[in-house]
Amino acid sequence: MNDHAFTDAQREGLYRAIHERRDVRSQFLPDPVAPEVLARLLHAAHHAPSVGFMQPWDFIVIDRLQTKQAVKALYDRANADAAEHYAGDRAALYRRLKLEGIVESPINLCITCDRTRGGPHVLGRNTMLDADLFSTCLAVQNLWLAARAEGIGVGWVSIVDPVELAAVLGLPTHVVPLAYLCLGYVSEFLARPELETAGWRSRLPLDSLLHGNQWGEPLRDEPLLSALRGPTGDAPLG
Prior knowledge:
Elements: H1 8-20, H2 35-46, E1 57-62, H3 65-83, H4 88-96, E2 107-114, H5 131-149, E3 152-156, H6 162-169, E4 175-185, H7 194-197, H8 222-229
Antiparallel strand pairs: 1-2, 2-4, 3-4
Helix pairs in contact: 1-5, 2-5, 3-6
């Protein structure tokens, strides 16, 4: 017996948050997020693991319309440039996609990474210098899953120049804007990711991503393969 496992209901809630989390762009409602709810999300983000316990993140909570509009202008320019990378039907589909909810969402949140935090020699970071960025991504994921549990949508706006964004937000030179997020209650959580529904990409089959012991070597663990094919697996193999 595993005395440290969650109850069935708690475990189900965790996996539900993982599988029902969505990158929200089009479904934001204007309803404000209560301070105590936002506080819980920020606490969840701050409890992410970090290499050397460096905790490189800071959180900029943005509710000022002028700031949102300035970031939206950055997005508009970057999105127009990005559209030029596609041609034909792909370009037409790209231009139909709504890829942000900057102004519509009641709260924007920029999660930054202080690349100097912890000093020049952070435990565990001497060989992987980007471990601070990886750690900050874990804070983003913590917040995202907690938000889903609270019924709050999150959208990550990656189509923006980070140098220009840093200037708009007044970041010091050693701090990078890792994630610009839109937060708010939503009219619905889509059953499938929006890009999948729109026909941009589909989820890759898990079996195509599995290797055994070395890259390209088949996974031969039959009990694991059987479990993956079963009703509790992420998806049937095939």
